[in-house]
């Protein structure tokens, strides 16, 4: 069932590593570009949404909240939301879609801003939950005694199990990393532009076995804004609206990384299955994909979750060239987070929208009209299906 909501504009700041720019400067730049993309002004924006809201538990991970952004941009909103506990980084987009569909707002500015690169030091790492805090609670406290403080450790466990069950190798993950680097070289906004060979990939230092340096996404400074509009309001925008065909946010397991009954699946499998129940479209109808790649191992999980191949078949699907440049189901055509830079999923959706509008220049997927996006790793996940009419 198609929602009464659409994406009408996207904008990204000039992202980079250790830019030294304030988060608000990045955000204002991204907002300006998104408004121009949609043909809207700040007076048209009456809603604002973000993930996860302002937080100080990890350096530079979420320095801005809805209130200060609303005030800095001079917005007069009648609806706002920050979603720290929901279907991953997709949450603010999903609640925005529901807000415009129910008349709470007409045009919602959804944003993600980070200064993780500039905020990191030798003792303060953005990838370490609770960095700088004396105590950790909840399920983190069970992982600390195992010295598993980083998500790279948890993803490494999953990769090890998946390798064992299905015979995947590091070379398969290397195909993901090197393929996305080729895409990045056609994207001027991507932070990693130098060539990446399989030899480079395999020779890089190990981070958390079997995941090496190029299996991990790249912390950056930057911001991304996506405008979600009511369907009738979207008709007056500058570009053809990208209708939100379906969304999925189901969670069918415990809220921990290590206690899911089948570690060769993630929350992605729950949310994607829920999404496909809400549309008549099928995986074969999809032209371009944005799949969360906080770590390379997430890409095969998402491919299987979304039904582009069977469980355990992703290694062959990848080896056949399906997801890289020229493939039938190109994934993360802007370079993804492995080469484009980590914007916690917002950058992936930005790229899918760019493709559906035919604005991706040298990396454009010819005739792209349906896109799928999945955000999240571990137990949290949100799925979205877009179509250009």
TrEMBL record:
Domain Thiolase C-terminal: 254-381
CDD domains: SCP-x_thiolase (cd00829)
Annotated InterPro entries: Thiolase, Thiolase-like, Thiolase_C_2
Protein name from the UniProt record: Thiolase C-terminal domain-containing protein
Protein's organism: Sphingopyxis soli
Taxonomic lineage from the root: Bacteria, Pseudomonadati, Pseudomonadota, Alphaproteobacteria, Sphingomonadales
